[in-house]
Amino acid sequence: MEPFEIRVPRWPLLVRLFDRGPLVRPTDRFEALVVTLAIVVVLLAVPVAAAIGTAIHDSRSHFYNEQNATRQHVTAVVTDVPEYRSFTRTGMMTVPVEWWEGDTRHTETVQAHGSVDPGDAVDLWIDADGARVLAPAPASRAAVEAVAGAAAIWLSVAAGAAILSTLVQMTCDRIRSAAWQHDLDTLVDGGGHTTTHP
User: Fold this and answer.
1) Angstrom distances, CA of residue 134 to CA of 70, 137, 178, 198
2) Which helix (DSSP H) or strand (DSSP E) does residue 77 occupy?
3) At residue 110, what are phi and psi to the nearest 5 degrees?
4) First and final C-alpha spacing in the chain
């Protein structure tokens, strides 16, 4: 019985990067170096993107919490409906409404469903100054925006690294092909010289 040895296969990129054998060309080492660095950059971008995502979450959470604290829901009443109703493409029309804050009467025109009549209630949101504003966004949106921002940053880095690696590999392939073609031409012409591939 002959003894045999099981070897753990090494990553080909690292083999080409550190192998000093005569068959490993300078272009092989350069290509392996660029691809390895690209992978390292992509891996290092993960904690950076996570930190940026955390910052986005904190900032947006504060913004949405402030919205919820300063915006108030009120119920306004439709005061009039045009005799000839003109609708938008979504079936909405502009109507005047009013609401009261204590002894203060507020009036505004809003978009409402075309089926509203005078006296119907319309829900509105106002800010601390009594001006109409959009409804406050839920605080959970901050998490969605944070994840989206972190993912966009990491994907941008990964895409840039992938494009750079691909361009380097294509260039190295062209250099190697040209070197092989030169060697074959030399061999066919009877030069008999041995050249070193770049």
Assistant:
1) 12, 9, 64, 64
2) strand 72-78
3) -135, 165
4) 44
Distance CA 47, CA 154 (A): 9
Nearest Cα residue to 78 out of 60, 92, 64: 92
How many residues belong to the chain? 198
Specify whether the CB–CB gap between 99 and 75 falls below 8 A: yes
72-78 and 121-126: which strand pairing?
A: antiparallel
Residue 146's region, left for phi above 0, alpha for psi from -120 to 50, else beta, is alpha
The reported pTM is 0.63
Contact 142, 61 (CB under 8 A): yes
Rounded-to-integer distance, Cα 78 and Cα 116, Å: 8
Write out the chain's pLDDT in tens, 198 residues.
Answer: 555 454 433 446 555 555 665 656 777 778 888 888 999 999 999 999 999 999 999 999 999 998 888 888 888 898 888 777 666 667 788 888 888 887 888 888 888 887 788 888 888 888 887 778 888 888 889 999 999 999 999 999 999 999 998 898 888 888 878 877 777 777 777 654 555 555
Contacts of 88 (CB under 8 A, 6+ apart): 111
Report the C-alpha gap between 106 and 97 in whole angstroms. 8
Phi-psi region of 40 (alpha: psi -120 to 50; beta: other; left: phi over 0): alpha
